[in-house]
Amino acid sequence: MKDIASILRNPIEYLKGVGPLRAELLQKELGIFTFSDLLDHFPYRHVDRTRIQLIRDIRPETDFIQVAGKVVSVEVLGFKQSRRLVAELRDASGTLELVWFQGINGMQKLLTVGGEYLVYGKAGFFQGSPTITHPEIEVSGGQGAGRPEFLEPVYPTTEKLKVRGLGGRQLGKLVTTLFNVLKDSDLPENLPADIREEGWPSRYEAYRQIHFPADLSVYARAAERLKFEELFLAQLRLGLIKSRRHRYSKGVVFAQVGQLFNQFYTQYLPFELTGAQKRVLREIRNDTGSGRQMNRLLQGDVGSGKTIVALLAMLLALDNGFQACLMAPTEILARQHYEGIRKLLEEMPVEVRLLTGSSRSKVRKEVLGLAREGRLHILIGTHAVLEESVQFGRLGLAIVDEQHRFGVQQRARLWKKAAVPPHVLVMTATPIPRTLAMTAYGDLDYSVMDELPPGRQPISTVHRYEDRRPQVMDFLRHEIGKGRQVYVIFPLIEESETLDYENLEKGYENIKAWFPEPKYWISRVDGRQKQEIRDTNMRRFLGGDTQIMVATTVIEVGVNVPNATVMVVESAEKFGLSQLHQLRGRVGRGAEKSFCILLTSPRLGKEARERLSILTETNNGFKIAEKDLEIRGPGDIEGTRQSGLLSFKLANIVQDRALLELAREKAAVLLDKDPELESEENRALKLFLQSQQGKTAWSKIS
Ligand code: ADP
Ligand code: MG
Fold it and tell me: What is the chain's mean pLDDT, rounded?
């Protein structure tokens, strides 16, 4: 059966009416190389010429319409730019104006007063009367004889193709030719029988109907069938990776909870764990005790307490004779983790070391030696840890903090750091909606921490226009007067970096004018500063020597200063919702009531206002991420863009969320029953998946 759908693999050149020249263009312009590619080039709309409507029924909301009638007058009106040909078309119900600004002479020849015509175009109103500008028109043999049975597809195309006679509607002729040679058996069914019972058309029918539907509801069913197929196959592929890992991967075994874990838990843990933290720890314990390699994604809202979970998991590794490492995305964060964890483990016999890009070479050498010989227990660092020169004697667990951009390739680099690949835990920076997570990371096991530690007061968030700046500054002064610290954040957007730095400069001067030395001290932190300067400024704020931090989003993730209770975000409209939520998470980390003030220009569109109002209404990162997804679409969600995992030909994971859920559920049930797709009934599906190897973004990364 290796030759399934072989006709679909034919080069497009061999389709009647294409030939070498057009084939080359189709390849270059639209990436259509084979019959199959043409089949998958879907129309973006349809022209309905199956029905003839009455002129009387044209409404302002009418879109494209087809009418039939007699031309009762033709005249040229106006001069120069306004010169136009106007014809009146009459049917039994009323009169319609047809207008041409171009091709007037040709049209004049075609139109005869008293002739019967079939007219198609986008209806509009001009001074109260219905008109169609530049309609398509043809002589009709009376009441619309020879009308098509199907809607006519219109395809995405390019200027170059249009010039060569392959415009949006002309491509339909090629697809018609294709269907003339395609048989039912060329597009065999690939969905299992119980799923087909949803009442969808067969695969062949669905393809035919998405191109040439009898009406729009038929189109919708066909599109749904094919979208489901796309989503289902994607879920199945990811599910296969996951279930194979569960069954075949080898992982080191953390058999026991030992001395270090217990000692820390009973003597030094500064608080009671939340239910969510306990649950995630149990999940990690199950994974790491199973003999299989753990690959787990932990999504926790800002402030949900991921660090302590990471620490406890690392102690578990240590208790079983293994080393652990913790990676953070920035130097500041790595150092903060290092200092925090060292302090927590102060009284315990655990060797903790730091390695970053700016570690001196002497320190670096020493750390590398200790890691290799297995004499350091916990290594904390930035991406410097991923470098090849860093080797561990017995690495058992690698944790990646505040990052969901950590792709399969990077994970693979971690695996090379020990003879048996270490367990991997990826902790995400920003919650991403479940739908997205299950689509992009379906191959990982997945934990959620949606519970904040008790006693946290919700951050109260308000939106203020620029003109209220004096009141906002008064408020800051008041809070600082109570001994608190504040952040003032400026946007930094790559495309307009120079301008943004100018704004940051001005903003900084402005804040200095409101808060003069020596009564007030300000730390400034931005990405252009030298590392040492940035660190010093950071440390002064951490230590309480400065009351105000003026910063760009370099402080976005992780930074923990519990005494900071106010965050002002300048030009808040320039940030994404999830990013604002992440920033806001820098306050509200202590017992005091905290505030976030979103400052914007008063000239703000309705959508931007609504966007910001979501933040003022909820502190739940998961809800915000859902909204962000709805507003911006999946393309922009941080960390998923490069993955290519979320781009489907037809399906849209926001609009087709219900289908995605269904696909996921069906794929899970199927793999549960038949993990390797070996049963007779899943044979076609398996063959299909194999025939698709190499065709998807997914296969490029796996
Ligand atoms: P994030 O999940 O954003 O990384 P952190 O791990 O930085 O959050 O934790 C935020 C703060 O909450 C820290 O000050 C931490 O000590 C504290 N914390 C974590 N877990 C608990 C808990 N169970 N009870 C009380 N405070 C906690
Ligand atoms: Mg954190």
Answer: 87
